[in-house]
Amino acid sequence: MLTLFHHPRTRSTRFIFLLEELGAPYEIHRIASLRRPDGSGGIDPANPHPHGKSPALKDGDTIVFESAAIALYLTDKFPAKGLGPVIGDPARGAYLSWLAYYAGVMEPAWMSAWMKWDIPRGTAGWVAVPEVMDFVNATLAKGPYILGEKFSAVDILVGTTFAMFMGTPLLEKTDLLEAYVRRVTERPAWAKATEIGDG
Fold first, then answer.
1. Within this chain, do residues 104 and 35 fall inside the same structural domain, yes or no?
2. Rounded to two decimals, what is the model's pTM?
3. Is pLDDT of 111 > 80?
């Protein structure tokens, strides 16, 4: 049985979404507390994430943490569901690239903008939100989903992030982006995930 360590209104809700899409058997361990950036809160001793954050996943004796790793682990564990191209699939390279791009480029760009951190251009390879969005928009102009015609776990990561920022000054509303977010968030598994995860 898979156990998702979850806290409401955090990034772990999207893994309820992924687990529901996969039809995987799972249980939720609701994390009692999280350590916040301002120093408030605390670490739930039952949470296996090394920094007391959410999400983390337990599969028997295996612990997986960080969003890209959890997405890859789950889609590799349930390959028949088709939410992540398998080894040997020509789309595998793009899938791995987008998982890494999400974690290593998109998240830092969004969080630095959201927190109003002044990151000098070029620092540690940092990319600004407008550059990220140019790449995303060019990708979505080629097909309804990040990997083209097929919905994947990458869309769960990217689409739910855009849903969170839609309507803020950080994300310009365009017909292309609004349609993409709608395609992702109108899936029944997302409705169920938000009901379970944030309820």
1. no
2. 0.92
3. no
